[in-house]
Amino acid sequence: MPENDSSKMRSVLLIRLSSLGDVVLMSALIEYINRKEPFTRISLLTSGMYTELFSSDPRIDEVFDYSGAHWELKNKLLNRRWSRIVDLQNNSVSRRIRGWFPANNSPAIGVFNKRYLNRALLLFCRINRYKKGDSVVRRYIQAYDPCFRDQKVPDLKIHINEASDSHVYKLLEKIGKSKALGMAPFAAWRNKQWPADFFGEVGTAFLRRGFRVLIFGGPAEREASQRLADSLGEGSECLAGKYSLFEQAGIMKRCSVFLGNDSGPVHLARACGVPTGTIYGSTTRDFGFAPYGETPFKIFEVPLICRPCHPQGGNRCMRLNRKCLIRIEPRAVVDGLMCLVDYERQVIS
What we know:
The structure is a single chain. The chain is an alpha/beta fold. It has 13 helices and 11 strands. The strands form 2 sheets. A 6-stranded parallel beta sheet has the order 8-7-6-9-10-11, with helices on both faces.
């Protein structure tokens, strides 16, 4: 955090408990506050699995873990004097947290607008009321600063210190300066998951071009990640379940390009400054989670009347064939990702 004058100090609490992508998107709001009001102390309240992502962030004053004893957390929060609380979760849990603060001594409250009506009109009536550029990140900032309108939205950024005293360092040495494709072939919803065989085809194409292929994921995805790595053979590595989220982010920074479904790992890769390709199936960029910013990206999707069919993705396909996913050809994805790699080479040179 920058040097400051304590007499001008303000304290802001940002609440975003889950999930990975939404928490990472919060980093743009952190940057916005840090630039606009450098004397503001920024604190975060999030789930324990995400606290480490902000542990080395110089913009952050304190990170509170919601996973522990709630009575202890409540006492900690009530013992601090907050200028503003920004609820970026806006659900029953975050509303209960806001209720901890007494009405007669409550700080100013900002709440994230989820655009429920716009979402329903698009899903059920095929009426798109979303304005161009209406992103979740922009609405995060507006929850903090209602006057924010046409200004440029800051890029995502997660501060990662590469661990030099752990098994991560050995893998980073192994990667060295070689080219690497990062892949996250998983998502919380089945209708967001591009077929594993298609990811395999992309991985094979990059291996033939001299890239290493690194497969990212959580502990629950370790077995499937290992199967994919085994099918790809030499030059591929399964990271799922072997490294923490924070450690995987440190490894992501070494990737030349990253491919994932419309899910959290893609946002994390972008926050680490990596060019990304995103597979869109049952969801749409109109919901506000589309990539943006200076780091180059590609979106892979096919236009279908049945898209979007679910606000989060869903697990059942009404057409029983998931054409929104299987019509995205691996060859087109490889070509798109190589364009990102070539673009980065031109910028560096």
